[in-house]
Design a protein that fits this description.
By secondary structure, the chain is α/β, with parallel strands linked by helices. It has helices at 2-20, 65-75, 85-93, 100-123, 127-145, 155-172, 218-231, 245-249, 260-270, 289-299, 323-331, 333-344, 348-361, 366-373, 403-410, 435-449; strands at 179-186, 189-196, 205-211, 235-239, 276-286, 305-309, 389-394, 415-420. It has an 8-stranded mixed beta sheet with strand order 1-2-4-3-5-6-7-8, sandwiched between helices.
Amino acid sequence: MRRIVMTLLMSILLLAAQFSSVSAAGNSDLGSNDGTTDASNPGNLKTNDTVFCSSAVVYPVFQDKEFHFQVLRQLGIAPYGGSDINECLISASRIQPGDFESWYREWFATAERVRQIADESLERGHNVSARDAYLRASGYYRAAEFFLHGNPDDPRILQTWEMSRDSFRKGVDLVPCPVELVKIPYENTTLPGYFLKPDSSDLPRKTLILQTGFDGTAEEIYFSQGQAAVERGYNCLIFEGPGQGAALREQGLHFRPDWENVVTPVVDYVLTREDVDPDCIAIMGISMGGYMAPRAAAYEHRIAACVANGGVYELNYTRDFSPDELYALFNYPDDFDAGTREAMENDTSLRWSIEHGMYSFGVDTPHEFLIKSQEYTLKDCVQQISCPVLVVDSEGDWMMPGRARQLYDALESPKEYMLFTIEEGAGEHCQMGARLLSNQRVFDWLDETLEGC
């Protein structure tokens, strides 16, 4: 029994490391929840103060690495109008690290204030000001809702997410380029999406199917990649599949590993449109979408090019477990869950990852989520991919270290490996905080790959 208990503890520690370690950080204080934010009192910072520091980014926002990353995520869409810098930093300064309620409260307050600016600007006929404020408010509501998923029945999840979506739609109604709300036929229901175009003509164009990953929304990637596509002359269909956005929150659809059965109806829909060049359809998946997009491309050969940022060969969060650790997971699930929940209390990243994983995968326990993650693999289909694939990696990616290179090595189709580095400021997961540079390099590859379409 002692051996089993020790094995269980090792499993939990390894799990925590997978979700929350910072590669090459070299500082044992990093990621601790010490009850303070560095940004909350910047005037009193001393040269020897400990600030959050991953190998990819250094500046004082949070010592709690998960909270820091999520602030960076919100800052990262500022170049495309999804946030403003000091609105983010001042919101962060009011948040207690590791306190999910504090996170919700402060981002929600900022969203409400900015939404009021938008409403008043619209009423007075200042449409550009209203547009800008609605779009920023959408991002702040999204941020507020982010850590609420520990209780799937919390009414604030749907309420706050709806406020994010509503603000976004009010904003895009005022943008110069067309943004069309679409419903894509899918099994016995539909999937939600937005169809973006460079102009209002029906000229057939190259079209990018764009999707988020484990925890994003369609509205968020409008800022992070959608606008960049349209600026370069693409149509862009942003959609949410099972486990994402409205499909999860409104329809109760959870993630599924056979993502080809999600994307094929999306391609079917795209091909019904007169404004799409049927020979020039690409797909891009972000984060966990770096598994979904290649998975779809393995079966859906109407796709002409695929971008996986960052690439994922297998999601499996138990892939580094030893045989003894797997034995403990499968044979002592109640003990495993109890130990995991105890570890979650002291690790923000682990807590959020497990809570959101259970919510989006449709399970009730940590061990069920981990076991389900084993189903998400390209092992039996990667050789079926025939289109060119861009596998994008980030040098300091502490969320999915090594997974992109594993995908690249397994591919047999035309392929390119694109590494973003710490030195150029793009070393975070999915190049968070370096959106303009990321889009420049990724879309340049896509332009060249689809040249002649």
